[in-house]
Amino acid sequence: MSRAVAEDHSADNTTPYHSMEIGSSLTLGQLLKNVSDVRKVDVGDETPLHSSQGDQDYDDLMRPVPFVLSFNNLTYNVSVRGKFDLIPRRSFSSSKTKTLLDNISGETRDGEILAVLGASGSGKSTLIDALANRIAKGSLKGKVTLNGEPLQSRTLKVISAYVMQDDLLFPMLTVEETLMFAAEFLLPRSLPKSKKKLRVQTLIEQLGIKNAANTIIGDEGHRGISGGERRRVSIGIDIIHDPIVLFLDEPTSGLDSTSAFMVVNVLKKIAESGSIVIMSIHQPSHRVLGLLNRLIFLSRGKTVFSGSPASLPGFFARFGSPVPENENQTEFALDLIRELEGSAGGTRGLVEFNKRWQEMKNLSPPASPNPNLTLKEAISASISRGKLVSGGGGGGGSSVASHGGFANPFWIEIKTLTERSILNSRRQPELFGTRLATVLVTGFILATVFWRLDNSPKGVQERLGFFAFAMSTMFYTCADALPVFLQERYIFVRETAYNAYRRSSYVLSHAVVSLPSLIFLSLAFAATTFWAVGLEGGPMGFLFYCLIIFASFWSGSSFVTFLSGVVPHVMLGYTIVVAILAYFLLFSGFFINRDRIPQYWLWFHYLSLVKYPYEAVLQNEFSDPMECFVRGVQMFDNTPLGQLSYGMKLRLLDSVSRSIGMRITGSTCLTTGADILKQQGVTELSKWSCLLVTVGFGFFFRVLFYLCLLFGSKNKRR
User: Which residues form the ABC transporter domain (predicted)?
Assistant: First the structure.
């Protein structure tokens, strides 16, 4: 492939990147801001507008800016603990370390595909992660440079993309919708929607998935596109902004040979457009091998071959193991490496031979491909030629916003995230339908079991049981929110790793999307139980009943959402949710009053999410001072004396009246709602305060969820 050689533009002050007068002190965002003054790009066909000054000037404008990515002596060690060694015993024995990368060096250029090969566990994915800055700072030794300059994390986020091995996509979105949402996230707000659509259509053509553009992605329960098409969509999401460097972790894994060839062929076109493509691959076919430019074979973290595919036969011939005719070269190499790994000496001989081979080639250290440009200037010049779509397209301010942090302001991110979640959920109505059916069935059972309760002492006890069960049911029903984030976790990690949107935007959108369903569920449960059970309060009592049920749903959903950010597995999460909610119910005040709870457990009573809605509905029910719940002879109910005849009870009342000096008849009110609240220990907070505390718990757990995402989703190895 022909490669552009940068020319000395010192005599030509009309070139875009020279006329910007870029100083080394400028930030990347300021450099990209200057690009908008010289770059007017039609995003659809990525053809910059140019004046008719001759074909040579136009060719110079369109020629890709050369980039060379080099990595030297990359070494990565991890500590290995014993199977049951949960606590490191540093004082008794030295910690064991395992070397995943051992002095790995190499380079690749724009227009080329660098493929990393090796058996499982050889370090392929680890090397890709090291180059993509997905290993925590301080753990990785060595140096990664671009055009001879150290590649900073902030710069790499701007100019690169990383395609994970698994296809992490929303199953109910179509191919076009998936790419369009990616465009909304990664392309700046200043770019018109029509140009974003044109960019998506062009990308669909480039990926060869035009026939599947209106087909949903699909999953185990919904038929969608094929595996090869899914892989190309995954690639398309990350190259929507046309990055300069593209990393891929085994993009052909699980695909047949034809699909694998089509995927790598797409990557070849991306490389030829001026990008550096680095990928790991397990065992490429002969056709795929013909598309690759550079190979690195790894064995247990060491380099056993580094060079072009054409030099592979000569390398092994000189090593003493020539590649047989009509045999796949990479298959032979991998088989030989595995055979050596199983021998006594291992691959030590091959590693040493590779070092001598590299010395024989007598390669001098690569110089910068364009000594007249700094890295920042080269990036700006590349943008002016059509790379990094998000870097131009409008005002300079958008460029700074885009490359200094995020492509869009947070309200645009919230709007886009909300639209995507609603669209994906709307096409799975069975999920909300199941949840609604659960609430309605629970409400129907409670309504029929506690049908039209009276104001007798037994009715009071039954009301207390109804409220305790109903309020705890609100929280248990929210457990189905647990898988929602767990299913989206890796999509979230992938998108936020390269600043598609802010974590705070995701948290707010997640909350906004949940509210309509919670409101509907609250009304459904309240309408099913309020009048059927015979609760007090009239219209205002019903309104408060709806509000406290909604607040319970809100705090329960927030609590479960927070746990989903902490616990990585669904079954483990369900176990923890059920256990903690059981503890909340135990300490709510229904089974044991606050005054009877031991002092050393009293703190849990105030942390119980069930306590506050339970106390709120009790006050809503028993707040009427004119309502009486125990009259005269009813004081003997729930006692052995309750079996006596009515006349005998009246005589007992008369005896009690004479003894205490106060007249008590069969209709005398002995217990009001206030007495019941006092008996239950509901004396500290008003019902509106309980409502506010319940709502506040919801916001508190949403903040904790945000902190979990902020500090627990770095997506880097340690």
Answer: 69-325
Q: Which is higher by pLDDT, 165 or 185? A: 185
Looking only at Cα atoms, what is the longest distance across the chain? 119
Which H helix or E strand runs over 429?
A: helix 429-449
Residue 610 near residue 475 (C-beta atoms within 8 A): yes
- Rounded Cα gap, residues 17 and 39, in angstroms: 10
Nearest Cα residue to 597 out of 581, 613, 611 = 611
Non-local CB neighbours of 81 within 8 Å, separated by 6+ positions: 88, 95, 96
Region 609-635: what's the mean pLDDT? 89
Pairing mode of beta strands 160-163, 47-48: unpaired
Q: Where are the alpha helices (DSSP H) in 534-663?
A: 538-566, 570-586, 602-607, 611-622, 646-660
The tokens for 423 are 């669209």
Indicate the helix (H) or strand (E) that contains 109: strand 96-109
β-bridge pairing 140-146 and 149-150 = antiparallel
Q: Which two tokens stand for residue 610?
A: 């069930």
Kindly state the tokens that stand for 413: 């991110």
Q: What angle do the packed helices 193-207 and 257-272 form, to 10 degrees?
A: 130
Amino acid at 86: L
User: How far, in Å, CA of 528 to CA of 623, rounded?
Assistant: 22
pLDDT value at residue 540: 94
pTM beyond 0.85: the answer is: no
C-alpha 115: how far from its chain's center? 28
| Closest of 715, 640, 629 to residue 673, by C-alpha | 629
